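Below is the record:
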Amino acid sequence: MPRSVNHVASRAKRKKMLKNAKGFFGRRKNVWTVAKNTLEKGWQYAYRDRKTKKREYRQLWIQRINAGARIYGMSYSSLMGALKAANIDLDRKVLADLAMNNPEAFEALVNQVKK
C-alpha cells in the first residue's frame, strides 16, 4: 500500500506562513525555510517584547510621577505612601498623566496628601 501524505494540509500550512512573511526583504518573503525561521524568530521577539513593553511603561510612569512630585517637595516613594494612607486609589498610569498634562490637578492631589 502506498504511503499516504496529506499534501493539501502541508501546502496550506506553508502558504499561510508565506502569507505572513509578506513585506519581508529578499529570500525572507518567498523561500520556505528562510521565511519560516524569520517568522518564528519574529514571533519570539513579539512575545518577549509584549512583556517588556509593560515593564518599560511602568518605569516611565514612575519617572513622571517622581518628577511631578519633586516640584512640590515630595519624593515618589513618600507620595505613593501618602496616597495609600489617604486611601486614594489612582494607578501610576493616571498619576503620570495628571503630572504631565494636568499639573493643577496633580498639585491639588499632592496638597491633599500633605495635610
